Amino acid sequence: MVARNIINAILLSGCVVLASSPLHAQEADASDIVVLGRGLDLPPGTPAYGSVRITKERLSEDASGTVEHALADVAGFQQFRRSDSRSANPSAQGVTLRALGGNATSRALVLLDGVPLADPFFGSIPFTTLPIDTIGAARITRGGGAGAFGAGTVAGTIELFTADRGQLPPYSASGFYGTANAVQLNGSFSPDVGAGYVSFSGSFARGDGFWTTPEAQRGPADSRARYRSWSATAQGVAPVGETGEIQGRIALFQDERTLRFKGADNGQEGQDASLRFLSRGDWQIEALAYVQLRNFNNIVISATSFRPTLNQRNTPSTGLGGKLELRPPVGSDHLLRVGVDTRFATADMYEEAMNATTGAVTFRRDATGRQMTTGLYVEDDWTLGNVVLTAGARADYWSISRGRFTERNATTGAVTTTLHPERDDWEGSVRAGLLWRASDRVALRAAGYTSFRLPTINELYRGFAIFPVVTQANAGLAPERLKGGEAGFDLTPTEGVRFSATAFYNRLDNAIANVTIGTNLRQRRNVDAVVAKGLELTGSVDVGTFDLSASYAFADSQVEASGQGAALNGKRPAQSPRHSASATLGWRAPGNARLAVTARYVAAQFEDDLQVDRMPGVTTIDGFARLPITHRIAVIGRVENLFDVTVLTRKVSTSVDLGTPQTFWIGLQIGG
To answer: Which range is least confidently modeled, 18-27, 39-48, 173-182, 595-604?
Structure first.
C-alpha cells in the first residue's frame, strides 16, 4: 500500500510536469542558454577516473538496435552470458566490467538520468525498456565509486542519459524488418509546451527468433528463441524560476521470451516513475525520487521429459529510492558535493515444482525478503591551474530483513518454513583521483577507490536450474568489498586524434560466485577474493570523411579461495574472458549518408567455476548503412554477425546454447 501511494504521488507529479510550464521564457544571450533535460554540470574531476563516452550518433548506428549491444563498444563491458536481450533469460542480464566475474547480478551500477535501473529482486538490467532512439549518450566509468548511489559500484558505473531538448526532433519514427520475421518499431513526439517540452515515445519489437540449440542436438521439443516486447514512456521538462528545472518520467514495459524448449516461456513487466528537480543557481541542488514496480515469470522445461518442472509464476518486487545533493558556493576553484541517497527493495516469490514425468505439482514455495541502504557522501574537486584533485567518501547503513522461505508438500500438506536472521551494519567507501593536464596534448591521471555491494534478494533466497545444473541460494552471503587503483594517460597529438591507456588493479573480497559443491550442483557462496589486473586502451581518429574508434581490454582475473571452495583457487572466474576488443570504421558522405563496419572480439571463457566447460573465443562483424532519400527520410540497412560465425553462450558438457546468427535488417527512418 505504501509503495502504491508513493508511485501514485510521483505519477501525479510527473503528469503536472508533462502538462504545464511557464507561459513566457526569459530572453538570454545564446551563450547563456541552458539546454533543458540535462543534469548538473559534469564535475571537473570526472576525467581522473578514465570515463569513456558513447555519443548518440554512435548509439544510433548499432547493428542490433539494442542498448546492451552498443555498450559493447567499450571493451570489458559484458553481461553474464554472451546473449542479448532477445534470447537471454531477463533475470540473467547482469552487467559487469573488468572481468570480475559474476552470477547474473550486476556488479556495475547502471543509471538512467541518475536513477538506478537494476531490478529490485534480481539485480539484472531490463534493457528492453530502453529504446536506443531515446538515449542521448552513455558514459562508462570502470572501477569503484563513492558518489551518489555508490553502494553497489564495485565494477564501475554506466550512466545513460535520455535525449535532451537539443537532441530531440519534434517527431521521429523508424521501422525495421529483419531475418526470422523480426520487426522493430520506434516512434516519438516531442513538442514544446510553453518554456518546456514533453516527449512521448514508444517501441515494439518481435521476432520468430533463431535456434539456440545446435542442429545436431535439436529435437521435437526444441523451439526458436521467440521474443515480443513493448515499452511506452512519457517525459516532461519544465523550467522553474530563472535557474530551476523539474523533470518527470513515466515508463511502462512488457517483455516475453521463449528459451530453447517449447513452453519454456518467461516474461517481465514493469512500471517506473521518477521526479527530478535541478537548481543551477549559486547553491546548485539536485533532488530525485523514483519508484520501480516489477514482476517476473518463468517456466522451466525438463531436457529429458520435455515437461514443465518449475513454474515461477509470480515474482513481484518494488524498488524505492531517492537522493538529495547540494553544491554550495565555495569558490571557483572548488566543486563541493554533499548528499544523501537511499534505496529500498522488497520482493516476493511464488513458484510450483512439478513432477517431470506426470506434470503433477509436488511442492509450492514462496519466499520474501527486504533490503535497505542509506548513505551520506561528500566529494570535492579542487582545481589548481592545470591540476585537478578529487576526493570523496561515503558512509552507508544497510539492512537485510524479513527473509523467509516456505515450502508446502502438495501431496502430504506438510509445511516447512525457514526464517532467516536479520542483519544490518555500516560500510565506509572512499575514492580519490588526480588529473594533471601536462599540456594541451597530454593528460596524466591516477585514482584509488573502495566500494561494496550487498547480495541481492535473489542471491540470498532464490535458487534456479539450467539443465542439468541446479544452483542453490544462500541466505548467509556477506557483502562484497572492493579496493583498487589505476593510473593512465590521455593523448590528443593532433586535432581529431585521441588515445587513452589505463592500467588497473582491483581486488573484490568476499566475491559471490556459483561454487560447484557436487555433480551438477552449485551454491552461491562467498570466495576469499577475485583479483583482476590489466590494461585498457581506447583510441579514435576522425579525419576528413573517415573515422575509426577502437577499444581493447586485457584483464587477468583469478579467484583466491580456501576452505570448501579451495578447488577454485588460482582459476579464472566463470564467464570472464581475458581479452576483449571492439573497433568501428566509418565513412561519411555528403547528404548525411553513412557506412560503418564494427568488429568485436571476445576471448575464450569458461561456463563453470572449475574451468571444465570452455567456450572458444569469437570475432563478429556488424555493418550499418544509411542512405538519405530526403532531408528527413533515410533508408537504413544493418547486419549482425555478417559471416554467421558460431557464438556459444552456454556450455555444459556437450549441451550448448548459441548466440545471435547472421541477421539482416532493412528499414526507414523519419525525423523532423
So the answer is: 18-27
Helix (H, G, I), strand (E, B) or coil at 166: coil
Q: Nearest Cα to 164, choosing from 61, 230, 235?
A: 235
Q: Which runs of E-coded beta strand occur in 477-617?
A: 480-494, 497-509, 512-518, 521-526, 529-543, 546-560, 579-589, 593-602, 605-606, 614-615
pLDDT digits (tens, 9 = 90+) for 126-152: 998 888 889 999 999 999 877 888 888
Residue of higher predicted confidence among 81 and 226: 226
Residue where the block lists cell 535488417: 665
Determine how many CB atoms are found less than 10 A away from the CB of residue 416.
11
29 assigned to some structural domain: no
CA distance 261 to 300: 9
Which is it for the CA torsion 136, 598, 124, 663, positive or negative?
A: positive
Total number of domains constituting the chain: 1
Residue 265 lies in a domain: yes
- Percent of the chain scored above 70 by pLDDT? 94
Q: Which residues contact 55 (CB under 8 A, 6 or more apart)?
A: 137
**Could you tell me the CATH number of the domain that includes residue 46?**
2.40.170.20
Q: For the chain, how many residues are written?
A: 672
* Cβ contacts of 371 within 8 Å, gap of 6 or more: 343, 344, 345, 346, 398, 399, 400, 401, 454, 456, 457
Q: Mean pLDDT in the chain?
A: 90
Query: Hey, what amino acid is at 619?
Result: T
> Whose CA is closest to 473, among 420, 431, 426?
420
Distance in Å from the first CA to the final CA of the chain: 43
Predicted model pTM: 0.91
| Residue 612 belongs to some domain of the structure | yes
Which domain range does residue 431 map to? 2-24+34-671
Q: Which among 470, 471, 430 has a CA at the least distance from the CA of 450?
A: 430
Report which secondary-structure segment, H or E, holds 297. Answer: strand 284-301
**pLDDT tens sequence across 159-180:** 999 999 889 999 999 999 999 9
pLDDT band at 467 (very low <50, low <70, confident <90, very high): low
Q: Specify the amino acid at residue 130.
A: L
User: 66-86: b or e for each residue (b if 16 or more CB lie within 10 Å)?
Assistant: bbbbbbbbbbbbbbbbbbbbb
Residues 6+ apart with CB under 8 A from 568: 513, 515, 527, 559, 561, 609, 610
pLDDT tier, 517 (very low <50, low <70, confident <90, very high otherwise): confident
Q: pLDDT by residue (tens digit) across 231-258? A: 999 999 999 999 999 999 999 999 999 9
Nine cell digits for residue 606: 569458461
Instruction: Give the CA distances from residue 241 to residues 26, 249, 303, 324, in Å, rounded to whole numbers and listed in that order.
Output: 10, 20, 63, 19
Sign for the CA dihedral angle at 55, 57, 60, 64 comes to: negative
Please, are residues 286 and 111 in contact by the beta-carbon 8 Å criterion?
Answer: no
Nearest to 578 by CA among 605, 618, 611, 613: 605
Mean pLDDT, range 382-408, rounded to an integer: 95
User: 534 lies in a domain?
Assistant: yes
Taking only the tens place, the pLDDT of each residue in 475-506 is: 999 999 999 999 999 999 999 999 999 999 99
Distances (CA, A) of 140 to 212, 361, 607: 30, 46, 26
Q: How far is CA 39 from CA 28, 334, 435, in A?
A: 20, 19, 23
